[in-house]
Amino acid sequence: MYSIDRNSGLDPDTDFEVIYRNLVTYDFPWDMNQSLSFALFRTYAVPSIGRLLDATGEFTGRVQKRYDDTGLLLEIPLLEGISSPQGRSAVRRINQMHRMYDISNDDMRYVLSTFVVVPKRWIDDFGWRRMSYEEVRASVRYYQMLGKHMGITDIPETYEAFARFMDDYEQANFAYDEGARRVADSTLHLMTTFYPGPVAPVIDIFSRSLMDPPLLNAFHYRKPGRFARWASIAGLKARARVVAVLPSRRKPRLVRDMPRIRSYPNGFDVDKLGTFAPGCPVHRNTDGRTASVG
Predict the structure, then answer these.
(1) In 10 A of CB 204, how many CB atoms?
(2) Does the model's pTM come out above 0.85?
(3) If you average pLDDT over residues 142-151, what whole number do you get?
(4) Are 247 and 1 in contact (CB under 8 A)?
(5) Which helix (H) or strand (E) holds 38?
(6) Helix, strand, coil distribution of the chain in percent, nearest 5
(7) Which residues have a Cβ under 8 Å from the Cβ of 260 and sit 6 or more positions away?
């Protein structure tokens, strides 16, 4: 690929929003979409997160809308700037939804860490090139700012600290939960609807082939065969080699323009995205289990 270096001369500590926006919308739009979807999927394996998502019913009864809302609400600050009026409106909507429930700061930090770590690891493995130091640093700075606007505290300072926190949190907290399994199953089923019907079984196997053993174990998912795992990884690496010789993208690829975003064919209003439940928090028993919603 002959690459247009849109980030030449930019400082990742001050121009991080521009650098990260270019990374997501020009250089790696497909990879970022896939990896961020996997990042969110990983969070279900933490029972306090997966159980809560199951209790809300949003990821089982309205999974398409929840998928669309998540992608759009994360894209708006990316495109407009976190501190822009539209960016602030999107973050406000995210915060309003989170405040309806009892979510620990550690769980919030963990979700934030997956947004930093999982895409870098995906691109290192399957991208047409590796991320540069400046791009990694910019992604760290971007999510540090987003996390601060979401009221998250004790945010890691470096990529290495984010990665260490994510790995340690998963080792300590990944476990099976029936509610989390329902959310995972519903999300995987949604993924199969993005492709023609006969391909659906292949998408299921492909998805499980990209999951590491701790994630598969946490959901009690059947491990894919050796050939399925090899074929899935080989297919992604072959795609990367093809992309590497294509011309650089001239127009940004946006989530809102993807056909898999189906809930708003006539456009959307930022302030109406997401959930507007009655507002009753999810109550927890003394043992930490979710007791009720609403």
Answers:
(1) 16
(2) yes
(3) 98
(4) yes
(5) helix 29-43
(6) 65, 0, 35
(7) 67, 194
